[in-house]
Structure prediction request, 478 residues.
Amino acid sequence: MKEEKAGLKFLLIIVTKEILNCDVRFCHSLDTGIRGKFLTKHNVTNNDIKNITNKMNEYISDGYPILKINVSNKDAVSYYNRYDEEEKARSLNDIINETIIFNELLGRYSYFYSNIVNNTNEINNFKIVNLSNNDFVLIDNIDSKREYVHKKNILIEFNKYNEWLNKQDINYVCDLNKIISDGKIEDFIKKNDIMVDNSIMNIAQNIVKLKKKIIFLGGPSSSGKTTSSRKLALFLNALGKKTIKISLDNYYKELEEIAIDESGKRDFESLNAIDLSLFRKQLIDLLNGKSVVLPKYTFSTASKDFNSDPVTLNNNDILIVEGLHCLNEIVSKNIDKKYKYKIYVSPFTPLTLDRHNYISTTENRLIRRIVRDNRTRGVSVEKTLATWASVREGEEKYIFPFTDEADIILNTSYIYELGVLKVYVEPLLYTVKMDSPYYEMARRLLDSLKIFFPISSEYLASDNVLREFIGKSEFNEG
Prediction:
């Protein structure tokens, strides 16, 4: 729960100040937790972590109230300026609210972009994993989560993007807002786009260098897999390679062969729903130079047809396979690894609201999905919100455990994207009524967007990943 996570962060900030006499920065999510950093020159040890954990558990056990105090925005800005939290003051200046809700615990005050628990005794079991260079991962509610697995490659991707941001003198959303208010956002968008496109070109060059024949491209919902796969194909074409694109979604079994899940519905997300025998056979046939008629799955009839023209994988051709289960080695276990190259696609932004509030990658993807579902299928916000938990459950089962099997990570995040998406998603979120079970969820998303200045989509190129969600992409209709 967001409320519990905010309370846990607040408590860690307070206890770290007591024990290490330093502040904490929360950077981004990492696997099942939040990656943070102790802002001190002191080398934080496992014993320090133990002392912090023990003190936090003491406060949780004793049960201290977390008070909500209405203060004027002006007073809040003055408070943060007085305590050298300049980016928080600047961020609150960017919010038009006349008043905000400060949280008070043990004599300390802070503002979070979400609701917070009323008492420390509402915080469940947690864990602090000590990393190198005073980095750590804070895991809330550990009893309800799978065991933390350190994702080194994802952390490297975050750090790489953060280094680029530092070169642009951008650390927080308020820095991005200044670029917008100064009329320089079009130039920044071009620079950010070049960085993302350069990552795809580097991947294409590596594929050619390694002489790979089959590319598996997977990632969670709303990561921009469709646009990424087509841009990758274009870059490979530019390097003299022809490409054949395959979607794993076209290999679903016939409806009666797909198992029924606990809710009584056909489980299309399970690996068992895929006709792996057909898929594997066609890959082998293609690698052996045979012509193959690829299937086309029609969801309205829940069946495959084989009416397309046959394709052949020639010596200069590369196969690009996109799908939910692409990173799972079971899918292509009959193919020699020398032919395969796996890409994990997801948006990872190191940009934070302030030192204590980060941008959720999961909520970033949810906002993308809300906009796309409504635009392409006329799906209401509430329906998208209602299915999100199930989508997330599928990701936890079928995607995240296999991210380490990827050869490389493709980051599809744009630093400016929430400013663009805000224009599209805010009107949709405001349609969720107070009596809806998803009202609080919609309001939380609205609150998280308040700090972002809106950005016009007119500056976005037709091959930008965001076009997959807002429309007018050169890679699909709309």
Q: What stands out?
A: The longest strand covers residues 23-30. Residues 2-144 form a domain with the Threonyl-tRNA Synthetase; Chain A, domain 2 fold (CATH 3.30.980.10).
